[in-house]
Specification:
Blueprint: E1 4-5, E2 7-10, H1 14-25, E3 30-33, H2 41-49, E4 54-55, H3 60-63, H4 75-80, H5 83-92, E5 97-99, E6 104-107, H6 112-125, E7 129-131, E8 136-141, E9 146-151, E10 156-159, E11 162-164, H7 179-186, E12 191-197, E13 201-203, H8 207-210, E14 215-225, E15 228-239, E16 243-245, H9 247-260, E17 265-270, H10 277-290, H11 306-315, H12 329-340, E18 342-349, E19 357-362, E20 380-382, H13 396-411
Bound molecules: flavin-adenine dinucleotide (FAD).
Flavin-adenine dinucleotide binds near residues 12, 33, 35 and 179.
């Protein structure tokens, strides 16, 4: 029958494409509906357009730690389609891959377009019917099951199974505008509160603007609230015109946003975590002594970037032309504090517009982790970022999309 499918997938992102292809490989008649003109818009911008498609971790128990408390839900899905299988899947589609030092996996071409092209080829080889510029407006249900969908233009399609893979709310320009949350809610599902995650932070102190563009590796950042340390992380940060970003800050952002609901939070930066306070103080004394006849602004060669030195001296209220051997103990203490405990007040975040992922979503208690099937409606499935799962940076979020998409596509009941 025309317009009758075994599976309709709403959303042509990472999760939807894999699910559609897998179901079709199993013999299902599949229709993939995508509201954009093209498939995989978010994949294209992922990994700075290089697409960090997964993380090379074969131990699933280790892997699921990257997703915090909700990670346990992923145990089956990521066993079904673990990183090694994800890599095999793409290599079988002709994409050559590489594993970088930090175990992030990329296409050797460094081109996210190659990943999208390979998925489109996969869908076409498996005869998935693809409809773009097809925004789903309504989902129809009889007493117990989903029966079909309606597009914005009024077109109707019937189905025996429906997968909602519409993504979350982050980077809405890619098509993730939260439609799926509305659909899920209307169908009786609970949506746990959504917040941006992996998002840059806004900082009150205006001097950060002057540090814009500077990045630091292997520094320690501690999150404080009411003078109490909540957590600390070591990694890389980047100063921007509004505040701070960089992998470690992105990974910390969810905790910062959650903590801010209970009041102000502060980040304390230790630029030299390998030296304790005493060691750093001795080091400062030594360089001030060894370079005594030089101006204080000119003695930091390989130790600090020159842009930072100017700001540091300004914050410490030290005249940059002062000779190093005339720096007082109090002035040295001020430098020490800036290097070991620079306080930054978080005043906000860059929101869903710049969040790599959405935290919160369809409540996992209402989804079968072995199949991605709704526990409320038998022929309804969810996959990808729409679920209340989010991971840190490093290829973990696409891993969820592939893993849950694969599981849904492989689980749905097909007509005999
Ligand atoms: C800038 C950026 C960089 C990233 N880099 C990485 C990375 O390198 N590695 C990594 O692991 N993760 C990365 N992520 C996260 C990762 O890309 C996402 O978590 C993942 O793509 C989510 O896949 P999805 O299929 O669930 O959703 P999406 O990719 O958002 O796909 C959902 C699709 O559904 C469509 N849709 C929505 N509503 C409707 C509707 N009503 N009708 C029809 N279609 C609809 C949308 O247009 C969209 O195409 C990045 C994210 C961003 C924003």
């Amino acid at each position: 029958m025309k317009n009758q499918y075994d599976l309709i997938v709403i959303g042509g992102g990472a999760a939807g494409m894999v699910a559609a292809g897998i179901a079709s490989e199993r013999g299902a008649k599949v229709l993939l509906l995508e509201k954009n003109k093209e498939l995989g818009r978010k994949i294209l911008i992922s990994g700075h357009t290089r697409c960090n498609l997964t993380h090379d971790e074969s131990n699933i128990r280790e892997l699921i730690k990257a997703y915090g408390d909700n990670g346990a839900f992923l145990f089956s899905a990521l066993n079904n389609f673990p990183p090694q299988e994800i890599m095999n899947f793409f290599e079988n589609l002709g994409v050559k891959l590489k594993i970088e030092d930090d175990r992030r996996v990329f296409p050797r071409s460094d081109s996210s377009q190659e990943i999208v092209n390979s998925l489109i080829k996969y869908l076409k080889n498996n005869k998935v019917e693809i409809k773009t510029l097809a925004q789903v407006k309504n989902i129809f249900k009889d007493k117990t099951n989903i029966t079909g969908v309606e597009l914005e233009n009024g077109e109707l399609f019937n189905t025996t199974n429906l997968l909602i893979a519409t993504g979350g709310l982050s980077y809405p320009g890619t098509g993730s505008t939260g439609d799926g949350f509305k659909f899920a809610k209307n169908l009786g599902h609970t949506i746990t509160p959504t917040i941006p995650s992996l998002v840059p932070l806004k900082i009150k102190e205006t001097f950060v603007k002057d540090l814009q563009g500077l990045s630091f590796s292997d520094i320690e950042v501690s999150l404080y609230q009411n003078n109490k340390k909540i957590t600390k992380k070591i990694g890389d940060i980047l100063f921007t015109h509004f505040g701070i970003s960089g992998p470690m800050i992105l990974n910390l952002s969810k905790q910062v946003i959650t903590a801010r609901k209970n009041g102000n939070v502060e980040l304390r930066i230790n630029f030299k975590p390998k030296q304790n306070e005493k060691q750093l103080d001795l080091f400062l004394q030594k360089i001030f002594h060894d370079n005594g006849k030089k101006t204080i602004k000119n003695i930091w060669d390989n130790f600090l970037p020159s842009k930072f030195v100017g700001i540091m001296l300004d914050l410490a209220d030290i005249y940059p032309e002062k000779l190093a051997n005339s720096i007082s103990k109090e002035e040295r203490k001020k430098i020490l504090e800036i290097l070991h405990d620079l306080k930054l007040t978080v005043v906000g975040d860059m929101g869903f517009e710049q969040a790599i992922v959405t935290s919160g979503g369809v409540d996992l208690k209402e989804i079968d982790p072995k199949t991605m099937q709704s526990k409320l409606i038998d022929n309804l499935y969810f996959a990808g970022e729409i679920l209340d799962i989010d991971g840190i940076t490093g290829g973990y979020n696409l891993t969820v999309a592939w893993g849950t998409g694969y599981t849904a596509g492989n689980s749905l009941a097909l007509p005999l």
